[in-house]
Request: fold
Amino acid sequence: MREYIQKGSRRYWRGISALFWGSFVTFALLYCTQPLIPAFSAEFKVAPSYASLSISFVTGFLAACMLFMSWLSDIRGRKTVMVMALLSSAVLAIIISFTHNFELLLALRALQGIMLAGYPAIAMAYVNEEFDPKVAGLVMGIYISGNSVGGLAGRIIVSTLTDLFSWHIALAGIGVISLLASIWFWVGLPESSNFSPEKRELKEVFSALARNLRNTELLLLNGIGFLIMGGFVTLYNYIGYSLMSPPYNLSQTVVGCIFVVYLIGTFSSTYMGKLADDHGSSRILCLSIGIMLLGCLITLHSNLYIKIIGVAMLTFGFFGSHSVASSWVGKCALFDKAQAASLYLLFYYGGASILGTMGGQFLSWYGWEGVVFLIGFALMLALVFSTLLLFKEIRYKIYSTTQS
Reply:
C-alpha cells in the first residue's frame, strides 16, 4: 500500500520547501543570462539571435538530455539525481562567471543544461509518486511558484550586479546563492517512499516514450508545453531590446526590476492549480492560455505602463498554464510517470530553445511587432490544442453519464 505524504505533516512541509528551492535554483540558473542578452550583443559584437543562444543552448541541451536523466533516476533514485543536478549546475554557474570568450560561455551553458536536465522531470514524477493525489495540483503549483521566484531573483540580481559591477560578478553571485539553496534541497527533501531504484535497459525508456506518444491527451499537452514556453521565453528574451531603446531608454537595472511581475507567477501557478483541482483542468487551461494571448497583444501598446501590464498578464497566464498542464501529465500517465514528465519537458524546453531563437530573427526583421506576431501565433495554436482537450473531456463526461 502506498504511503503518501499527507498535507500538513512534517514531511509535507519539508517536501514542498525543498521542491520550491530546487525549482528556484533551476529557473534562476536557466535564465540568469536572459537580461544579459543585450549586453552580450554589445560586448561580443554579435546579433540578438546569436546572443540569445546563451539561453537556447541551456534549454536545448536540457530538453535533449531529460529522457536519459529520467532513466538514470530509475536506476540511482529520484533524490540522488536531483541533488547531483542542482549542485553541479550551481558550481558551473560560478565557473562561467570567469569566462571572457562567448563561444566558451556557450559551451559551458550547454553543459549546464545537460546537468539541469536531472531536475525538472524527476521532480514532477516525485510529486505524483509521493504526495497525496488530492493535493497534487496544489503541490505542483507550489513547485512551479519556485520557478517564478527563481526567475525573478535571477534576473533582478544579475541585472543589478551587472550595472553596479560587471556581468562576471553577477553570474558568480547567482551561482553562490544557487549552491546554498541546493544544499538546503539535499538536506530537506524526504527520501522516496513509493519508488525504489531498479535496473532498466535504456531501450525500455524508448518503449515508454513510444507508449506516451500514442496517448492523444499527452501529445496535445506536450504541444501546449512547447508553444506556451516558447512564447514566454521569446517575450522575455527580447523585451529588453525594446525597453532599453528609444523612446524608453531604460537602464539594465530598471529593466531587471520590471521582472518583478514574475511574482504574479508565484500566485497564479498555485491558484490555477487549485482551480484545476476544483473545476477541471481543461477549462482552466483554456482560460490561462487566453490570458497569455491577451497579455501578449497588450505589449504592442506604446505606453510603458500598459506594456508592463501586458507582460504581467502573459506571465500570470503562463505560470497558470504550465501548472495545470504539468499536473495533468502526471494524471494522464498511469505508468512511466518519469518518462511522461520528461517527454512533456522535452517539448517544453524545446519550445524555449527553438521559438526563443526564432524570436531574434523576427526582432531583426520586423521589430517588436514581429516578436509579438510570432508569440501570438504560437499561443493561438496552443489555444486550439487546449480547446480540443476541453471537447474531449466533455465528450467523456457525456459518455460516462449515458453509460451510468
